[in-house]
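Notes from hallway chat w/ T.B., transcribed later so I don't forget. T.B. wanted the structure written out for a chain they're using in a teaching module, and asked if we could keep both sequence and structure tokens in one place. Agreed to drop them here.
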Amino acid sequence: MCKLFRQISCKVSIGFMNIGPKLGRYYTAAMVVYLMAAACTVPAYAATDIFAVARSIIIDVYNGIAGISTVLAGLMSAVAVIGAKMSSNQHKVDQSWDWLKRIWIAWAIINGIGAFIAYIVPKFDGLATLEP
């Protein structure tokens, strides 16, 4: 058993010793491949600033939301008015007028945010600087 262990350990150590003199060549080849890959890569540059792209995306999304909210507010206002006019129960009439008020308030808030972004925010563009 002891002889077998010595033979195995001797073969293993000889195997590692055989790779030792070639280790410099392997390292050099790996570094050459790595440096060639680094030299052959093409850097990618963005055409515009990320903040300009984000601003345009926000404006596009908001314009879509404002357009849809206007159409839905008109449709729901018509449904609420028709429900109020055709109802025979005063409780349902009051609920219809309450819903109409909620629709108008929500529409005013959504479009008020757009007006704030469009007209008020550009007034503060030069104020966020740290220069004296």
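Follow-up for T.B.: Residues 50-86 form the longest helix (37 residues). Might be a good example for the class.
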